[in-house]
Amino acid sequence: xxxxxxxxxxxxVVKLALEERSSxxxxxxxxxxxxxxxxxxxxxxxxDDRDDVLQEVFIKVYRNLNDYDExxxxxxxxxRIAHNEAISWYRKKKVxxxxxxxxxxxxVLAFLNNNEEDAAVRLDQKINAAYLEDALxxxxxxxxxxxxxxxxxxxxxxxxxxxxxxPTGTVGTLIHRAKKQLREALExxx
Length: 190
Prior knowledge:
about 190 residues; Rna Polymerase Sigma Factor, Chain: A; single chain; mainly alpha; Arc Repressor Mutant, subunit A
């Protein structure tokens, strides 16, 4: 009975979409919000621009779904496409990223007091989120990308490796260096 209520895996959804193209909407439903959040964190904050980028992402996914290799993580594959589309958007617009939206990431601020009823704590969380957003925006883009993928999108090192097309060891090194830079940047706010 539990198998009946369990949602299908990404690979099962891909197979279904390949068999019946009208099922592609399942992929969009599953990833639209996640990719929208990711693209926003990469700095595309205008909703129209973000929608344009997402539209391009899903068009590319639709066109290239036959090329997806099921031996790899589908989420890493689709995040790679979103990452590339965001970079392409910046190149076309000749603009730099606007920073990262981090206010909604409670996991990053987990070191704060857990008393949700305390108004002062909620205010501190907003202030700390603003500091974190500012500190992230000042990091080198390669460090921003690994931190966003690891701590906001919750991807594993292997998936980040696939998204950024870097060796897994390099991802670990970048995350280590990024955390060090972020700690140093946040110390300025203490």
